[in-house]
Design a protein that fits this description.
201 residues; single chain; five-stranded antiparallel beta sheet; globular; 8 strands; alpha+beta
């Protein structure tokens, strides 16, 4: 199994299978060119897991992508569109791209936890909007969480082939599985890991 696919499956399964801390809220999404605005025929795919902790004021961003036509030039969370699941919006998170993201790739992965009390975790244009947040990081964090909760925020990966965004996904609240499914999901991860080791051997 390709490493990117294994990462996607394991990250998503862990996010859904393990009981999260009381203050954590998890959102997920599947990246595709068909979800861009305008839609495109990119074969690129990927998965996204965003974990908010409203007690620590953190946002963990995890995603992987593969199969881009171009090479990656940036990735962000955009917020907030006028209507849920459609349209475009300005960048809300760090510019020119997520902190520490390796660019110039057709496939890759990313995992970083942002301290949302810091102004550096936001696009200045989002944070300093005088009509909404006026530089207040607590208000900006609440606004971003509200936008995601209402389906008005999306993550996309930009490339040199599609400067406006090659693949994207609107973020949705992760479903919470029944407690009885935890063991089954974790055992499935073990099978995937063993299969990957056998193929590498």
């Amino acid at each position: 199994m390709p490493r990117v696919a294994l990462f996607a499956l394991s990250t998503l399964a862990l996010a859904l299978a393990l009981p999260v801390a009381a203050h954590d809220t998890v959102y997920v999404g599947t990246l595709a060119g068909s979800k861009e605005a305008p839609a495109n025929a990119s074969p690129g795919t990927g998965s996204v897991v965003i974990t908010f902790n409203d007690h620590d004021s953190t946002m963990r961003v995890q995603f992987d992508y593969a199969g881009l036509i171009g090479t990656s030039t940036a990735a962000h969370i955009h917020c907030c569109t006028v209507a849920a699941e459609t349209g475009t919006a300005g960048v809300a998170t760090t510019t020119p791209t997520f902190t520490g993201m390796v660019l110039g790739l057709t496939s890759g992965s990313y995992d970083h936890t942002f301290d949302m009390t810091l102004a550096s975790s936001y696009n200045p244009a989002f944070l300093n909007n005088a009509s909404t947040y006026n530089g207040n990081t607590a208000l900006a964090f609440a606004g971003l969480m509200d936008g995601i909760a209402n389906g008005k925020a999306y993550l996309n990966v930009h490339s040199n082939a599609f400067p406006g965004g090659e693949i994207r996904t609107f973020l949705q609240l992760a479903p919470v599985p029944e407690p009885g499914t935890y063991a089954l999901m974790l055992s499935g991860l073990g099978v995937l890991a063993m299969a990957a080791r056998r193929r590498q051997g």
